[in-house]
Design a protein that fits this description.
By secondary structure, this protein is an alpha+beta fold. Helix content is 64%, strand content 12%. It contains two helices and four strands. Strands 1-2 form a two-stranded antiparallel sheet. The longest helix has 65 residues, at 98-162. The chain starts with 13 loop residues before the first helix and ends with a helix. It comes from Anaeramoeba flamelloides. This is Prefoldin subunit 5. It holds the Pfam family Prefoldin. Belongs to the prefoldin subunit alpha family. InterPro entries: PFD_alpha_archaea (IPR011599), Prefoldin (IPR009053), Prefoldin_subunit_alpha (IPR004127).
């Protein structure tokens, strides 16, 4: 769970435990989506770094396919191997030398990896919390069932004794 307050799960009733279970599950799903997005960004940065490596002087004037969309390309020639435009967020572009762009994307990759590890750590904490809640919930439901069965048996015994 993300909040650091601690409390005894045994003090909660099954309804409260079920509500807590749903809350933790919902949080877990959000973190899972975030983790997936971070992995996609990391992959994008890795592909970018790979592409930057191809910007060598010997590739000057070589034919390329410039993407217009993910499935639409425009043929062209590589006319500049010294600098690139990098998207630094919300469609703001900065011209950088290739080496500077590589360093930028290495730093960004490291930041994304660190964030992904933080999210993964939180996901594991949520999993542990969910297991703890499930364990207590199952035990409480079992206790209620046993109590109910015991009450039914007592009622049956009373009926038998009355006859």
């Amino acid at each position: 769970m993300t909040n650091k307050s601690s409390f005894d799960l045994n003090n909660l009733n099954p309804l409260q435990l079920n509500s807590l279970k749903e809350q933790i599950s919902s949080e877990y799903q959000k973190y899972r989506q975030s983790y997936t997005q971070l992995l996609e960004i990391k992959s994008l940065y890795s592909n970018t770094l790979f592409s930057l490596e191809s910007l060598q002087p010997e590739n000057l004037n070589q034919p390329i396919l410039a993407p217009l969309t993910e499935s639409l390309y425009l043929p062209g020639k590589l006319t500049n191997v010294k600098s690139v435009l990098t998207d630094i967020g919300t469609n703001f572009f900065v011209e950088r030398g290739v080496k500077d762009a590589q360093e930028y994307f290495k730093r960004q990759t490291k930041i994304v990896e660190e964030k992904a590890q933080e999210v993964l750590k939180t996901m594991k904490q949520n999993e542990e919390s969910l297991k703890a809640v499930n364990t207590v919930l199952e035990r409480k439901v079992y206790q209620q069932q046993q109590k109910f069965v015991g009450q039914q048996q007592q009622q049956q015994q009373k009926k038998v004794l009355k006859k």
